[in-house]
């Protein structure tokens, strides 16, 4: 297979950019994610799927707390991709100067974004290098000021607008993570293990 020829198809599958917040043992964290999709056909029983890499600090927080919030970014919030997505919460409190409140599921909700979904995990699938979380959406809203702006920020648009230096930094980070993923992708545990949430 020519992987380059399917890249435009794969690239179109990434979701709008979300700041994924989580809270565990009184500590809050945030990371960027684009591997998100809707996962319910029942309008009043909404669900989402979210893929989180095991190397991320957020992974343990989401796995242990059983919750996360998806805070979708506005098109003018490009800088948050670097602030939240290029460094780990292990090294820095990324929410220190960011206004948020805790939502009904106990997750941090950013006060300044396009809109949010507050989610409770109902199941998870081991993907080797990442975990795919299935979650109920228990609350959500489009923020008032954002309604006039229409679309949230998509990665395929954002990557064209990011400064060249940021893209170089990102390419270096993702190259290192690709190497880790290559070794872990096939190490899949087929035993479900979310009993600690029951
Ligand atoms: C545009 C973009 C998209 C990303 N998408 C995902 C994703 O879907 N899932 C994921 O686990 N990490 C994704 N990341 C990587 C994390 O945001 C990044 O590794 C972050 O530093 C992890 O932070 P943490 O260690 O505090 O959890 C993405 C990063 C960027 C910049």
Please characterize this protein's 3D structure:
The protein is of the alpha+beta class and 198 residues long. It has a single domain, classed as Pnp Oxidase, Chain A, CATH 2.30.110.10. The chain contains five helices and nine strands. The protein has helices at residues 3-11, 57-65, 79-85, 155-161, 164-184, and strands at residues 18-24, 27-33, 36-38, 47-53, 67-72, 100-102, 108-110, 115-126, 130-142. The strands form two sheets. A seven-stranded antiparallel beta sheet has the order 2-1-5-8-9-4-3. β8 (115-126) and β9 (130-142) form a beta hairpin. The longest helix is centred in the last third of the chain and has 21 residues, at 164-184. The radius of gyration is 17 Å and the shape is globular. It starts with a helix and ends in a 14-residue tail after the last helix. The model has no long low-confidence stretch (mean pLDDT 94).
